[in-house]
């Protein structure tokens, strides 16, 4: 515990640690200031208004005068439904009208009488149904309008996934430097079997602390602005060809768990390499490569040569917004053609972290024994020091 | 109970050995000096004694029954500190480092007493990055003191200190010896070693030789290495030619 507290204390005082925590806190709070648009009331209303205007203009111009009766009937029904949306006086009526209109549209798509994106329409219908069940739903158009529990996933998704891995890079490289053999805290007075896991725990604690510092100001500001327990938008999203409805709690816990565990994994991988090599360079390079790998467009593609393995690779779970939707997310398939889920992600990330720690201990001891044996083969009686 | 070094060969891969067949026997409570020209292998010898596998080619090391094969207890017994600031973390304070040394070595010494002895009180809570080179060296020597390891290897601990601080450091090194800790100290400031060391190690004919301490280390250095010593031998295995003429050092 003493060594752990010394390591955490030391890493917390590094300028890079403080800088990255402040930068991430600013980045996390930025959607509050910039008013990033959500798939909320204003966009749905604008779409309905456009559709209504176009349809009405076509009808007024006599485009349907010579059409068969059943088309004119359907057209009149569509106009009525869209007018219901356009003329809605309050959010409750608005969402109820949207639910009716999108249900009719979905039925037509399923019957084959209308061409359109069935998944997107189904997502819109299910969202509208949930919203219409609330007595007095809030008007939410921007990420900054979301309550804190919904703001966190939306704000995380608004930045590239690599940004949320920066704490692990900074902590990992920092701990490699702090625990290099020439440093006081790298002094090998603690056995490797205790030292390596302790450094990994210190890395994990430090990453979590940075993330807490990064998330807290934005969450508090969001709570002060929108109320800490106010209602938000439903979490409806499309994943691998299905419309999924999740609770805000599920989205929050998924995003938090994945962001924390991906940082734990990367930081532990870096410090384990640092313990083996006695420096920060190798760990830093591997850490950066791990973080950049999933940024490639082809990485999470079903046609990727890695696709059979993607489910078991920790890097596949680095972008939480590809696994779980968030309130107000636009209706696009977040993970097309690949089946990834949060629970498997957590297990994979934890398993790989444990494997790295075990592998470090095994490789370290194997190298030590190899060097000792090689010296003995050469007729040297000199004992070799442990590699880690 | 002693630090036993038997037939140690020190060198680096693909290079001829710096030192061969070094055998030393350091008893508890002694201060040993190490004087040699630049590049002769002082730091490599100290690192090898500390169990660092890089400069250690072959030989055997044993500190109170512990060998580097069991690195954790050996590292507790034998502490090597390069007395530049490479052991220190620039963001942390001297107080943090003293506490860390105390915790990691399980020292029985009080860090605040060590800070008082080494006159660190004025900058104990300042980050290392804001300290001068001399202050950092004071902190580093204080760390070695605080570790309370039975065998402490100090590589040039006095070179950035002013005369008063050097005197204070030497006084505390003697105090370490009184506590039955052995100190192996290399220095180019030979006047500070006068009266400090019990024995002195010099390099001769490619090996290390123990000679009794003299009151005038400068004279001993001149006798061993002469004026040519300012140009280090590029072949560590081959001592300066004049060494062979110095026959009666012991």
Question: Can you characterise this structure?
Answer:
The complex is a heterodimer of chains A (388) and B (250). Chain A has 388 residues and is mainly alpha-helical. Chain A is built from 12 helices and 2 strands; from the N terminus they run H-H-H-H-H-H-H-H-H-E-E-H-H-H. Chain B is built from 8 helices and 9 strands. Chain B has 250 residues and is of the alpha/beta class. Chain B has a single domain, classed as 3-Layer(aba) Sandwich (Rossmann fold), CATH 3.40.50.300. Mean pLDDT of chain B is 85; it is low at 228-250. Chain A binds chain B through residues 2-3, 6, 9-10, 13-15, 178, 181-185, 187-191, 371-372, 375, 378, 380-386, and chain B through 7-9, 51-53, 56-61, 67-69, 71-72, 74-76, 79, 82, 86-89, 91-92, 96-97, 99-101, 103-105, 127, 143.
Question: How are the SSEs placed, and which strands pair?
Answer:
The complex is a heterodimer of chains A (388) and B (250).
Chain A: H1 2-12, H2 15-34, H3 41-60, H4 69-86, H5 91-111, H6 118-133, H7 148-157, H8 166-178, H9 192-226, E1 235-239, E2 242-246, H10 248-277, H11 281-292, H12 342-377
Antiparallel strand pairs in A: 1-2
Chain B: E1 3-10, E2 19-26, E3 31-34, H1 42-49, E4 56-63, H2 71-77, E5 78-82, H3 94-105, H4 111-117, H5 133-147, E6 151-155, H6 163-178, E7 182-186, H7 190-193, E8 199-204, E9 207-212, H8 217-225
Parallel strand pairs in B: 3-7, 3-8, 5-6, 6-7
Antiparallel strand pairs in B: 1-2, 1-4, 8-9
Helix pairs in contact in B: 3-4, 3-5, 4-5
């Amino acid at each position: 515990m003493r060594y752990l507290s010394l390591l955490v204390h030391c890493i917390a005082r590094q300028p890079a640690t403080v800088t990255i925590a402040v930068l991430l806190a600013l980045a996390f709070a930025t959607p509050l200031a910039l008013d990033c648009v959500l798939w909320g009331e204003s966009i749905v209303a604008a779409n309905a208004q456009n559709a209504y205007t176009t349809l009405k203009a076509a009808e007024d111009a006599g485009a349907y005068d010579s059409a068969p009766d059943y088309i004119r009937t359907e057209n009149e029904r569509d106009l009525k439904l869209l007018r219901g949306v356009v003329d809605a006086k309050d959010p409750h009526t608005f969402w109820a009208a949207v639910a009716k209109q999108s249900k009719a549209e979905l039925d037509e798509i399923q019957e084959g009488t209308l061409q359109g994106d069935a998944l997107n329409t189904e997502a819109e219908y299910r969202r509208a149904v949930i919203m219409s069940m609330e007595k007095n739903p809030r008007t939410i158009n921007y990420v900054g309008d979301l309550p804190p529990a919904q703001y966190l996933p939306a704000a995380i998704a608004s930045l590239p996934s690599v940004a949320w891995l920066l704490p692990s890079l900074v902590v990992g490289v920092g701990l490699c430097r702090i625990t290099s053999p020439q440093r006081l805290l790298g002094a090998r007075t603690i056995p490797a079997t205790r030292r390596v896991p302790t450094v990994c725990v210190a890395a994990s604690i430090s990453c979590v602390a940075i993330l807490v510092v990064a998330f807290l100001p934005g969450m508090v500001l969001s709570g002060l602005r929108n109320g800490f327990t106010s209602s938000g938008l439903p979490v409806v999203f499309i994943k691998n060809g299905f419309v999924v409805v999740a609770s805000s709690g599920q989205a929050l816990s998924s995003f938090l768990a994945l962001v924390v565990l991906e940082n734990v994994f990367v930081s532990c991988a870096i410090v384990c390499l640092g313990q083996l090599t006695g420096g920060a360079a190798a760990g830093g390079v591997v850490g950066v490569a791990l973080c950049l790998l999933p940024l490639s467009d082809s990485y999470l593609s079903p046609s990727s040569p890695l696709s059979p393995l993607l489910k078991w690779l920790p890097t596949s779970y680095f972008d939480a917004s590809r696994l779980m939707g968030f309130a107000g997310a636009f209706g696009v398939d977040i993970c097309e053609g690949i089946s990834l889920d949060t629970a498997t992600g957590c297990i994979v990330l934890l398993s790989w972290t444990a494997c790295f720690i075990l592998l470090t201990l095994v490789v370290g001891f194997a190298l030590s024994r190899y060097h000792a044996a090689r010296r003995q083969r050469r007729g040297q009686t000199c004992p070799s020091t442990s590699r880690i | 109970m002693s630090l036993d070094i038997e037939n140690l060969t020190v060198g680096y891969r693909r290079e001829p050995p710096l030192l061969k067949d070094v055998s030393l026997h350091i008893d508890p409570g002694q201060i040993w000096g190490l004087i040699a020209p630049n590049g002769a292998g002082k730091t490599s010898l100290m690192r090898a004694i500390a169990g660092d596998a890089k400069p250690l080619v072959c030989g055997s090391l044993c500190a109170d029954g512990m060998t580097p094969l069991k690195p954790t207890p050996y590292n507790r017994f034998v502490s090597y500190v390069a007395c530049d600031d490479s052991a220190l973390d620039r963001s942390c304070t001297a107080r943090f480092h003293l506490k860390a040394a105390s915790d990691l070595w399980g020292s029985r010494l009080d860090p605040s007493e060590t800070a008082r002895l080494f006159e660190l009180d004025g900058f104990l809570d300042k980050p290392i990055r804001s300290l001068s080179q001399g202050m950092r060296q004071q902190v580093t020597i204080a760390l070695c003191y605080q570790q309370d390891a039975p065998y402490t290897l100090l590589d040039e601990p006095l070179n950035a200190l002013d005369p008063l601080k050097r005197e204070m450091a030497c006084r505390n090194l003697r105090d370490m010896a009184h506590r039955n800790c052995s100190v192996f100290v290399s220095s180019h400031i030979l006047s500070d070693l006068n009266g400090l060391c019990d024995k002195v190690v010099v390099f001769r004919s490619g090996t290390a030789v123990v000679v009794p301490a003299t009151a005038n280390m400068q004279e001993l250095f001149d006798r061993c290495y002469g004026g040519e010593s300012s140009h280090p031998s590029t072949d560590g295995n081959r001592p300066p030619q004049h060494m062979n003429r110095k026959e009666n050092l012991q």
